[in-house]
Amino acid sequence: MQAMVLSIIGADKLGLVDEVASAVAKADGNWLRSSFCHLSGHFAGFVEIMLPKENHSSLVRDCHALSNLQITLLPANEATSTNTKRIRIKVTGNDRKGIVSDVTSALTRFDLNIVELDTKCESAPNWGNLLFSANIVVETSENIDTTKLRAAIEGIADDLMVDLKEK
């Protein structure tokens, strides 16, 4: 058995996750964890599975037959560090062009690895413009000064609110 990551993208349709799950089961794979989303009519996701090496080709073939999906099957990266900590960051403020780039640049300056990033824009009630929000999980091996990190993100714009929590 080998840990593998299956990436999937294609037009969304009813029953798509069930079809992928059936293909994984048919290939004698064990579904460990997954992350999926629906964006602008498309389905995208990742599945971590344990799969016998001899069944890799059949899983790829069966997934390609599903709804014109674009798929990739890669070996999982087993290297994990025990000396890391994770910090959950929530950022909220008025949306504007370049906000994701500004936030990720601030995180890079602190040598943080982004392991999860979920962003969205929603209509702000009674404001008439879009409200940007990001839920971010970062990983660091250093003792980071979260006060300085918060100040760096809040310094991007006057209206940004930042909440930090160690995981």
Automatic annotation (TrEMBL):
GO CC annotation terms, alphabetical: cytoplasm
Entry keyword annotation includes Repressor: yes
Protein name: Glycine cleavage system transcriptional repressor
Pfam families: ACT_6
Start and end residues of each ACT domain: 88-167
Protein's GO biological process: regulation of DNA-templated transcription
Stored SUPFAM superfamilies: ACT-like
Keywords, sorted A to Z: Cytoplasm, Repressor, Transcription
Compartment(s) where it occurs, according to its Swiss-Prot or TrEMBL record: Cytoplasm
Repressor in keyword set: yes
Coiled-coil region: none
